[in-house]
Amino acid sequence: xxxxxxSGGGPGRTIAYVLVGAVALALVAALTLGGGExxxxxxxxxxxxxxxxxxxxxxxDGTSGDPAIGMMAPDFDATSFxxxxxxxxxxxxxxxxxxxxxxxxxxxxxEVPKLVDWIGRGGIPDGVEVVAVSTAVYLERGNPxxxxxxxxxxxxxxxxxxxxxxxxxxxxxxSFPYFVVVGTDGRxxxxxxxGLALEDWNWALDQAGRSGAVRSGSGSA
Length: 221
Hints:
Distance between the termini: 26 Å
CATH class: Alpha Beta
């Protein structure tokens, strides 16, 4: 992760704006859970511009044999809630645990305090970045994400997805909370949907610091 614009995450990967299309609209429709509220935040406080490069991951269906395992994770640019640019560059030396949360999701509201406690007690290994991605913003549902994550004392990086959940779509999100573990070589080592036990969290941090072949584990194929 860096706060300076870079030229990309690998050969042949061209950064380009992701256009809103049928796939993104379908994802947003699924995340509303049948609601009809306005999507996102037109004032730009809770959502922000994003930029994605590279092949997106297939939608996570929660079954064994996840086809994303071993795929190169896409790059993305986003901003923090204070407007600072954050660049996620898989394969450039850092491993990642990407945690996708929706502010209105009760399971996310239960999960975040646990992760805050675990990070506070155990820390984050060197060479690993834990990044919260706030996505699927529907402000009429309350608990706005900026205040929510700050109030919980989220200790790691937090970034804003855009109004159409572009980053979530690129990483194959289907339900919340959702975790994508990316090794130091930039390849996906596991994806998990739902709350984590402490042993699963420790597994995710360990795997994010590795590269090469993926062994069987909590979130692997």
